[in-house]
Design brief:
CATH class of the largest domain: Alpha Beta
Number of domains: 2
Order of helices and strands: EEHEHEEHEEEE
Number of strands: 9
Shape: elongated
Radius of gyration: 23 Å
Structural class: alpha+beta
Number of helices: 3
């Protein structure tokens, strides 16, 4: 049975795609949960045109995302924070701090897109990964230094 997917389904397909699945899977899982619509002879042309439109949108989004990835790769930030005597931070660096730093460069991302290799709790230089998509994950550099008080 041919089904037009309304939502992304892991290991099956992405929204806007026309896939072929077994009748039982479509009737018992996809259609009752409103994850897809059955493609019949009368509505096949409509779904074909809709799939092409969605494919075009994905290409545009992909090109914008790749440009954003190139911007992020070239970035390096320095954060000044209060340190203990042993070079440890009073408060660790969190994803919200990274989102705020990127916002100063007009790059808008969510906290869930920021990936740390390990938590940042002391001064030093760290690679920060920004997950733009499953394929595009550029890294930027973050340098944490002590705040000199006068």
């Amino acid at each position: 049975m041919k089904v037009y997917l309304l939502k992304d389904i892991e290991k099956v397909g992405i929204a806007g795609e026309i896939i072929t699945v077994s009748d039982g899977y479509a009737k018992n899982f996809l259609l009752p949960r409103k994850l897809g619509l059955e493609v019949t002879g009368s509505n096949a042309d409509f779904f074909q045109k809709r799939a092409k439109t969605i494919e075009h949108r994905k290409e545009v989004i992909e090109s914008v995302t790749s440009m954003l990835s190139e911007q992020i790769k070239n970035l390096s930030f320095t954060i000044k924070k209060k340190l203990h005597d042993n070079n440890k931070l009073y408060a660790s660096i969190n994803p919200a701090d990274i989102v705020d730093l990127l916002a100063t460069k007009n790059i808008k991302i969510s906290k869930s897109q920021v990936i740390f290799d390990k938590s940042i709790k002391e001064a030093g230089t760290y690679p920060i990964t920004i997950k733009l998509s499953s394929k595009l994950q550029p890294q930027m550099t973050l340098k944490v230094v002590g705040l000199t008080e006068k």
